[in-house]
Design goal:
about 5% helix; mainly beta
Length: about 150
């Protein structure tokens, strides 16, 4: 009561890197976020990151592999309840094949597998979970929208 959104700030920090040489390229990113919330002495935090390696096979095709991870921090509320993490760590791996129809259109076929680790934190248990997926993406640009926003 008597508090607004501005009384609970959030903060973030991140870094990214890219490298390329010939037909090979690599990129990655790491981010850390903290969210102040009502009734919490130690607020939730999250670390997330990914790394990707890509190989160009021809001017129109490429293959890529990517791995991503999310880990969550400790929390404590005003009643003294604590948990070493508020969510189980999650990991996603993806293998993709891409084909460029033109400079503005890309078709990607990808296979991904997700792992949510089993995690035990202060009498709370999350069972491990695995997921698999096949995806087909058409990535395109709408030049009319980009011109309208200028």
């Amino acid at each position: 009561p008597g508090k607004g959104v501005r009384d609970f700030p959030a903060s973030g920090l991140g870094i990214d890197a890219q490298w390329a040489r010939g037909a090979w390229s690599a990129e990655g990113e790491w981010q850390h976020f903290r969210f102040d919330l009502p009734e919490l002495i130690t607020s939730p935090s999250e670390n997330a990151g990914y790394a990707q390696v890509r190989r160009i096979l021809s001017p129109r095709t490429f293959v890529a592999i990517r791995t991503s991870a999310q880990r969550f921090g400790r929390i404590e509320d005003s009643s003294g309840e604590t948990a070493n993490t508020y969510e189980a760590p999650q990991y996603i791996n993806e293998f993709s094949l891409g084909y460029r129809f033109s400079r503005e259109e890309l078709l990607k076929l990808g296979f991904n597998w997700t792992t949510r680790s089993a995690w035990y934190a202060d009498d709370r248990f999350w069972p491990a979970a695995h997921g698999y997926g096949l995806q087909l993406q058409l990535v395109t640009s709408f030049t009319a929208f980009s011109k309208a926003l200028r």
